[in-house]
Amino acid sequence: MKANTKMCNRCDQLLPLGNFYNQSNTKDGKGNYCKKCKSEYQKEQIKMLKATDPAMYLLNKSCYAAFERGKITYNRPGYENVRCSYDNAMSFLKALWDDVFFRNEWIAQTDVYVANNYNYKYRPTLDRIDPELGYEKDNIRMLPQHINVSRDKAV
Prior knowledge:
Strand order of the largest sheet: 1-2
Number of helices: 5
Order of helices and strands: EEEEHHHHEEH
Structural class: alpha+beta
Mean pLDDT: 91
Low-confidence stretches: none
Oligomer: single chain
Helix content: 40-55%
Strand content: 15-25%
Number of strands: 6
């Protein structure tokens, strides 16, 4: 094997190290799949999760998006001072999923969304109860998209 190259464990091609993502927990500091294979693998995993557990898939996407909106560098109007009290998106996801009441509401709304042919109007979303506060455990609830975006959130 040439220096500065690595074999992809998925496509079995010998490629330059630049074709691999950095990964600190490996001997050479690079991932085991090339960037192309890693991307394909992630797309397959997302497709599988979407098909087998749409509620978890949607909550995962929502938590990652909300976590990004809670960063200091996020500058979209309406989110200037919104923060997220969770250390990362995965801990955010876990906290919400572990809350049985929240999870059951999320799953029920996902079922409505799926039953209505994925009409975005019915998609479950994360809502900040008090818009002046951030993404904190007691300030988050599930609302369907059409209610979350409306001005009057009387729920």
